Amino acid sequence: MNCTKSRLQSLRAPHVFGRLVTPNSSLKELSGSKTIDKFDPLTVIGKAPKPRQATLPHELATKIGEISWQWTPQELRQRVAAIYASLKEGTPHKATSDHLDVSANITGLFLQNYISLKTCLAEVHKRLTTSSDKKIKFQPKSVLDVGFGPGTGILVARELWPDIEYEKAVIYGDREMKKEAKRIIDNSEKVVFVDELPSDTSPQTFDLIICQHQLYTKGENPENKIAILSKKLGQLLNPGGVLLFAERGDPLGFESIASARRALLLSNINDSDSPVESSNEQTNHQSKKNNETPGDNVTVNTSIPLNNSDSSTNSNVNTVFKSVAPCNHDKPCPLSVGLSQRLSAKNPGKFNWCTFDQNIKRPKYTLELKRGQYLSQKWVPGMQQGTGGSVIKGNGRTGSNNYEIANFSWVSMQKELQSSNQEASLSSKWPRIMKDPMNRHNHATMEVCTDGKIQHWTVPKSQGKQCYHDIRRAQAMDLWPFDAKTKQDRGGVPEKFRLQ
């Protein structure tokens, strides 16, 4: 598409984290441009609603900070440090085991979990709800949150879709986590808190399902466990509904996401030929330990109150799953080699993987938590340069920075009826920018995922003033509406290693 094409005559104002953005707004989110008018209207459509720095709402930060008052700083920091060390070693996220574990989990992990989900769901919200070229708007009336935390998905979904009528949170782990969730979530009496997923025979279905840190697992055949959970959640989704998975942003978290996406896309071809033909046997196996990974903890509970959804919508006949974001295609992932292969590899990051990040301003409780010998980070020698190039060394927050970076991998899938003739939105096939573009002299390069391939695109200044302006202010997770002068197939996994 050429940059000189006429601009769209009318555009609905985009939203950034639930805040309406008007053409005259001052937007740091739009990467340095003072006004939105400087961008091509197509670029505005493709922009991810991802601010330069995200912040936790003050009221929510205050509630989280109050949790630390129950413990001495030393014992809380020691437990949080143990959780961080476990995750750094590649251990899957675990359900909480006691009251201190609950407090450490919330104070240490909630900030990044919340902002990661907010970044992902804000993109889904823009593509399906506020997009000016989407005829059928996604307006969920029921939501299911599955995770180890205090209903984090419920909090984010409420911000973006305030008209949700029915909310359910499946919280694995110690009962104290449910108590904290009821204190953190406003009007928590409207939320149904349970510790098990609805049964296979339950007529209860949802318009939006959020599943965070539930896929990645170790052991034999982890892909099969992921496929079982993915298909089970897919069965709980109404036609037109969205299923979102979010995991850590390392190679193992990415492969877990890719396995779930692959399982749902394979179910489109033939349900009986999907790789989860032994799901009944494994689903009936109920976990007895709270610290087991949820891939094994898919249990049955027939006492859960039912939603008002029609039971006929629970049927998966004539339904298909389609990728919403960040994938812009339904072809095999060009970066996936399989979770088993990544786990057995000496270096899981040998091949490229799909990950995004978000800069987060640390609230007061996080600044206080991460000071001292347990959670402070040693400065990298030479990282901070003093006057005249002298090296500054020290401990604590590097350079006194008050921010941290959340890395995450994610995918959102929409369940559609095969008979539906929904027109694809204008931006649904645009390539996704994988990493922040690199600005060079008179040109910019970027890595994009387009039509099942990873390519390196080069946009020179000669391609047009508008294109050149927009590409130099683009960022990772944006959709790119224009063409490129040169394209190279580079950055994907070689065909012989790729998982089809």
Report on this model:
With 500 residues, the chain is α+β, with helices and mostly antiparallel strands. It has three domains: 15-48 and 429-489, no CATH class; 58-355 and 406-417, Rossmann fold; 363-401, no CATH class. It has twelve helices and 17 strands. It has helices spanning 41-46, 58-67, 73-88, 99-130, 152-160, 175-184, 222-235, 251-269, 279-283, 339-344, 364-369, 465-471, and strands spanning 15-16, 19-20, 142-147, 166-171, 191-194, 206-212, 237-248, 319-325, 356-361, 384-385, 391-392, 403-417, 432-433, 438-440, 443-450, 453-460, 486-489. The strands form four sheets. Strands 3, 4, 5, 6, 7, 8, 9 and 12 form an eight-stranded mixed sheet that branches. Strands 13, 14, 15, 16 and 17 form a five-stranded antiparallel sheet that branches. It has a two-stranded antiparallel ribbon with strand order 1-2. Helix 6 links the parallel strand 4 and strand 5 (191-194). Helix 4 packs parallel to helix 5 (152-160) and helix 7 crosses helix 8. It comes from Starmerella bacillaris. Keywords: Iron, Iron-sulfur, Metal-binding, Mitochondrion, Ribonucleoprotein, Ribosomal protein, Transit peptide.
Question: What is the N-to-C order of secondary-structure elements (H for helix, E for strand)?
Answer: EEHHHHEHEHEEHEHHEHEHEEEEEEEHE
Counting DSSP E segments of at least 2 residues, the number of strands comes to: 17
Calculate the mean pLDDT score and round it: 78
Contiguous uncertain segments of 5+ residues:
4-34, 272-316, 382-387
Tally the helices. 12
Using the 3D structure, state the CATH architecture of the largest domain.
3-Layer(aba) Sandwich
Tell the overall outline: globular
Portion of residues in helices? 25-40%
Structural class: alpha+beta
- Beta-strand content: 15-25%
CATH class division of the largest domain: Alpha Beta
CATH homologous superfamily identity of the largest domain: Vaccinia Virus protein VP39
Distance between the termini: 30 Å
Query: What do we call the CATH topology of the largest domain?
Result: Rossmann fold
- How many domain units? 3
- Gyration radius from CA atoms, angstroms: 23 Å
Largest sheet: 8 strands, mixed
Biased composition (Polar residues): 270-285, 292-306
Keywords: Iron, Iron-sulfur, Metal-binding, Mitochondrion, Ribonucleoprotein, Ribosomal protein, Transit peptide
Protein name: Mitochondrial 37S ribosomal protein
Main location: mitochondrion
